[in-house]
Amino acid sequence: MIIAVxxxxxxxxxxxxxxGLALALSESGQTVACLDCDVEAPNxxxxxxxxxxxxxxxxxxxxxxxxxxxDGCGECADVCQFHAIVVLGGRTLVFPELCHGCGxxxxxxxxxxxxxxxxxxxxxxxxxxxxxxxxLAGIDFAQGLLNVGEPMAVPVISQLKKWRGxxxxxxxxxxxxxxxxxxxxxxxxGADFALLVTEPTPFGLHDLRLAVELTREIGIPxxxxxxRDGIGDAGVDEFCREAGVPILMRIPMxxxxxxxxxxxxxxxxxxxxxxxxxxxxxxxxVEGVAS
Amino acid sequence: xxxxxxxxxxxxRDIMKIAISSPDGxxxxxxxxxxxxxxxxxxxxxxxxxxEAKANPAVSARGGAGPQAVQFxxxxxxxAAISGQFGPNAYTSLEAAGIEAYEADDGTPSDxxxxxxxxxxxxxxxxxxxxxx
Lengths: 291, 133
Prior knowledge:
A: about 290 residues, B: alpha/beta, about 20% strand
């Protein structure tokens, strides 16, 4: 079972939910892996306290042109969808940060003047995690971290989702980045269920609509968690009713919760009653996916 | 008018085709300070002042607008480009294509041509603008 926690809007509580769910299921004896796919700002590790035992580099293959073999014919530039390779003044120029690593230029070069060289985009790191408290959890945790200045998160997320620990996991929980563009699509791809965390405000609703549309476009069943319940208005409830998206859980606006999270404590550690709430949530997701 | 005899150029500059970025393709309205994603380029012959406006094919490129615009200029035989700022990719491309880059703060393409011919425009020798997407 692969559950992606997503939201559209930033700061709604994706990481609170993803880590709460992972800790609750792991503590009840399930084999759980949790991946932080927010590779531009991964922070689930703050709640989960993993011991990073494995590291690997994420590379992308970038063309390198041998000027002795290149005659400037421009076939590589014609085939590149991203204008990452151009021929000017008889010289072939490569713009690595525009390259998506597809390899087409290398394939079409009639003079075999292009070879592909790896360029580091980011790193993956992971290891066992048990949270910061007394829970008997054993989560296989991993996160991706995009190098500063690299514009493309997708290759890092894509490699993260092949993390070594996933083979043994019964349940995989993906903490997605905010938004509704390529990195989110890459995180959601292949998930069995999308758990959309929102807050009951016009801002939460606006981005929830996008997130629901996105899950429908990719064809993944979705349910909603309303966080900070009690603030805002009834817009999110109305939208969910009309759109036929179930609200699976509500986490109230509660200053004590905010304070515990601000201290870096996971929700289920500060408020153990959430252990059962998250397990119930999981059961409902399993039922929903099965039906 | 320029010169009385063929081949004599009163500004002592080589005759060249220059390109000026423009939002509307007009000679007498302010130029566009954006290079890679300007709407039009105005091509002007520095001697005859004969000009034409052409839509910039890179205006809505997903990425790499700078290099794509330079390819367009290079294939049109342009030898100098005037704009507000040149990003790193645009500058690298201009340099490879052997196109001189000049920057200006304001003015119409017509004014800018005069300033270019009078030698008062600043030629840039490195990227002057930030990288954009």
